Amino acid sequence: MLFRQKPLKSFQRTLGHHKVLTSNEDLLTYSYDVSANRGMPEIVVLAETVDDVLMALNFAIDEGYFVTPRGAGTGMSGGSVPLKKGIVLCTERMNHILEFNADEKRMLVEPGVITAQIQEEAAKHGLFYPPDPSSYKVSCIGGNVAENAGGLRCVKYGTTKHYVLGLEFITSRAEICCTGTLNGDPDSADLTSLLVGSEGTLGIITKIALRLIDAPQSSGTIRIAFPSLETVGSSVSEIMAAGIVPSVCELMDKAVLKAISEYTGITLPEETEALLLVEVDGIPQEVQENLKVVEELCHNRQALEILSTTDADEAEKLWTLRRNISPSLARLAKGKINEDVSVPRSQLTNLLNEVAKIAKRYSLTIPCFGHAGDGNIHVNVMFDPDDTLEKTRASQAVEEVFKEVLKLNGTISGEHGIGIVKRDYMRLQMSPAELDTMRKIKRAFDPDALFNPGKMIPEG
Ligand SMILES: Cc1cc2nc3c(=O)[nH]c(=O)nc-3n(C[C@H](O)[C@H](O)[C@H](O)COP(=O)(O)OP(=O)(O)OC[C@H]3O[C@@H](n4cnc5c(N)ncnc54)[C@H](O)[C@@H]3O)c2cc1C
């Protein structure tokens, strides 16, 4: 370590002490994300420009440090946690909107721009940036791109990848590369889709060209209480089969509703087993018609209560239950493993029934909620981290959930990424040939394994 002190001091002087942190307190701040994983970096670089990133990478290459990219650190899979020490390279301060072209419905941004700021800027011009991870007020667009973040609206509008037109990224040899519309050559192979969702393992994203769309004219919200998981599952399928694509279709199961009721005091019909929150958007007439169809379909499925509105303030009241999930669940137990599994919509009820059986078998509370419209369910395994036996049971229950999900033709990560937490489960989902292809892509981009070591791909 000592032999690295001199080059480090010189690097600090060149880049500026405020951008190169080495105190224990600072390093601790960048040692975790929202998952349970921890890893102390040796150095934190707070890059403000592309030149800062280049300088940091040249320093890392020369001095043999690993580099873990980081945005706001809101990731749930350990992606920004430096597993093998080295440098945490944070792009949070690269936070400028560089260009906004309302006519072409495009925006060019740096990776540290907060997702909500992109949505607000688009809205000022009557435009819409739909991806909306629930962390949108704090997460950075660079982290969203690196995780291909989803959200409530992806049932209708897709995920982050559907809005990325091109990228600028810095390679593991400290070179600038551009993809897609930033590349300037429409005939060249587009590497954008390899970078989106690469979880900081292939390069440091430094610019993002985003596509915007026209903002919907109006929206309507409807909250429906159901007497069983079966009726809620078939209602979701019937809504879609009727040709309605809701902009939001969120499900909450009984365990989630109980926790929210205890926290907020909001009461629902006594026999409620599950709740659906549906939003439809479009031109006002279409919204009215679609609300009516949803109401009728759910009524025919023995809905216990249907509340519907096109008024924004009223809608906010219907959203109260959904918005209070996190603080309500936090009261149930000190530990929570939040898995974001995804199954075909037709398998929703089967998944929820299987999770209920697993909860019983392992004597655990496992509340479920999530984006029912695209089958992406957050399975929350609650446990006491100080109880070793319960902690073990929680891990075993998670593995069982993954196995059930794969049996139902689903995927173990709908939106939170693989990172550390799901890396070793990739073998359950992907064939040796598929994993080997991923390793080859990693080697092609990063032959010396500089970026984010130990993430995403299990060792061969
Ligand atoms: C309350 C809460 C709700 C959430 N809801 C959702 C949700 O609805 N949908 C969803 O998809 N996620 C959700 N998340 C997870 C998380 O917010 C997203 O994964 C988000 O995209 C992470 O952004 P970040 O800036 O915090 O990235 P970080 O956590 O800092 O990093 C995430 C990954 O991106 C990489 N990375 C970051 N910046 C760069 C860069 N410039 N270049 C290359 N790689 C980079 C990191 O190495 C890491 O692998 C939620 C999290 C919380 C805490």
Key phrases:
Uridine Diphospho-n-acetylenolpyruvylglucosamine Reductase, domain 3; 4 domains; seven-stranded antiparallel β-sheet; binds flavin-adenine dinucleotide; Alpha-Beta Plaits; Uridine Diphospho-n-acetylenolpyruvylglucosamine Reductase, domain 2; five-stranded antiparallel β-sheet
Describe what this molecule looks like in 3D.
The chain is α+β, with helices and mostly antiparallel strands and 460 residues long. The chain folds into four domains: 2-90, 2-Layer Sandwich (Uridine Diphospho-n-acetylenolpyruvylglucosamine Reductase, domain 2), CATH 3.30.43.10; 97-214, Uridine Diphospho-n-acetylenolpyruvylglucosamine Reductase, domain 3; 218-326, 2-Layer Sandwich (Alpha-Beta Plaits); 332-418, Alpha-Beta Plaits (2-Layer Sandwich), CATH 3.30.70.2740. 36% of the residues lie in helices and 21% in strands. The strands form four sheets. Strands 15-12-14-13-17-18-16 form a seven-stranded antiparallel beta sheet, sandwiched between helices. It has a five-stranded antiparallel beta sheet with strand order 5-6-10-8-9. It has a four-stranded mixed beta sheet with strand order 1-2-4-3. The protein is globular. The chain starts with a helix and ends in a 15-residue tail after the last helix. The model has no long low-confidence stretch (mean pLDDT 95). The site of flavin-adenine dinucleotide (FAD) has 37 residues, from strand 3, helix 5 and strand 10.
